[in-house]
Write a structure and sequence with these properties.
There is one protein chain. This protein is of the alpha+beta class. 53% of the residues lie in helices and 12% in strands. A two-stranded parallel sheet has the order 1-2. Strand 1, helix 3 and strand 2 form a beta-alpha-beta unit.
Length: 113
């Protein structure tokens, strides 16, 4: 029995490829965050660190592939941290409840345009 020669980019085990495809399809349809953004048609992420490469980026990537929506990001904007009390730092970096509410209002306004 002859074995077919694999070319660059060929998948040796199609079972693994099929399993990976099923996981991607599941993620696109069943992930709770994606279910939520389909329902609300917008999102706000809030993180106590840099917004670059964080949760917001992950949600933005998932949304872009499945259901593009307006997203507002609340977090530090690629700056060095400073010292202070937790309340002072939350205010300085725009991470208070009022900042998150403002971001939510902005995202909701963008979805209706």
């Amino acid at each position: 029995m002859a074995t077919a020669e694999l070319k660059k980019g060929d998948v040796k085990d199609m079972g693994l490829a099929d399993a990976g495809k099923r996981k991607i399809e599941w993620a696109a349809q069943q992930m709770p965050v994606l279910q939520s953004i389909r329902k609300t048609r917008c999102a706000v992420t809030a993180e106590e660190h840099n917004i670059i490469g964080g949760l917001g980026d992950a949600i933005g990537q998932a949304a872009a592939k499945s259901f593009p929506i307006p997203i507002e990001y609340v977090g530090t904007n690629d700056t060095f941290g400073e010292s202070g009390t937790p309340d002072q730092l939350l205010e300085k970096y725009g991470l208070t409840a009022s900042h998150i509410v403002a971001a939510a209002e902005k995202a909701m306004a963008r979805k209706s345009k």
